[in-house]
Structure formats: structure tokens, C-alpha cells
Design brief:
Blueprint (H helix, E strand, L loop, with lengths): L11 H12 L3 E7 L2 E6 L4 H10 L7 E9 L13 E9 L4 E8 L7 E3 L8 H12 L2 E3 L28 E6 L4 E6 L22
Parallel strand pairs: 2-5, 6-7
Antiparallel strand pairs: 1-2, 3-4, 4-5, 8-9
Length: 206
Amino acid sequence: MLSFAHSSPATAEQIADAVAAALGEKAKNVRVAFGEVTVTVAAADYRAAAVLLRDAAACKFEQLVDLCGLDYSGYKDGQYEGLRYCVASHLLSVSLNQRVRLKVFCPDDDFPVVDSLNDVWNSVNWFEREAFDLYGIVFEGHNDLRRILTDYGFIGHPFRKDFPTSGHVEMRYDAEQRRVIYQPVTIEPREITPRVIREDNYGGLQ
């Protein structure tokens, strides 16, 4: 009969220590919150840090399971003063049964650019295209960086905080022209959430 020895999974603090040791000065910040480890690196160190997290013996994050963009322009009710655009990747080590979140901020708010990780984890391909499409973040070195969710000819990036909720244009099929046409948005903003009135003894409650 075969028997397998299973070691206890590392704690979040142990993972944070291993990540900090592997990245050295490339780690601007390593923190643990709600049992999760987040490491932030500078854009100049982003790709090199990703390779270290993948290859270091105490890390072995062989898989990238998710990548998304973030727009901090409305963070803390507009009181945030840091860089606007961020890329957050979630990494998984199957062999060590541990996870980490890797964050990098784009150094230029007007033209957000970071390196692509397409040659580090091939699963990042579509995720980077989504972040480009929705946030306008450019991934330098991506071999096929084009929109993936919005329509052909779409203008703007709909997940940016300054993009209007209803968009700029709408499309519909025109039966007379027998084609899809674009036109200015005709949807009028409306409040669909019922207003809640709070009064003393409301509903008989004390």
C-alpha cells in the first residue's frame, strides 16, 4: 500500500516571508490582510518579479488564474493621491498549495503601460486583452493586443471611472437600411432603486 506524506500548508505570514525573500528589493510592499498575501512591485520590476515568483523554490506560482485592471481615481471618495491605474494578478502554486496577489501601478496616468506577462504565463493572454479593452492599459510586448469584449469601432474604455454609465452611443438594427447603425444614446438616466424613508417608529418598530 502506498502512503503519501502531506505537509501542512504554509500560513499567509509564511507565504509573505517567502515572497519577500524571493523578490528582495523588487518588493515595494508585502502585506497580509484577511488571510491573503498581496505584493506590490514597481513597473520597472514587474516582469522580473513575475519570473521570480514562478521559479523560486519557496514560491512556485506556476499558474496565473486571473488578471484585472483597477482605476483608483474615485478611491476613498476621491481623496486618493497615488497613481491611477493598477494591474492585479492572482497567482496559484499547485505544487505548494498557496496563492499570492501581485500588483503593479502604471507610472503614467495619461498613457498607462506595463510589461506583458504573456511569455511568463500564457493564460494571461485574454486577461490582458480585457484590461486593455476595459481600462485602456497597454501591455508592452503582448503579441495580439486588441479589444476583446466591446464592439468594433468602440471609443473609450467602459470600466474607467470617468466613462458614463450609459455610454456615448447606442446601436440598433435599422430595417429600412437593413444594417446595424450607431446613434447618440437615447436612454434617459432614471432612479430605479426605491427611496427608503427612515422615521421614528417606522413600521411599528421601536
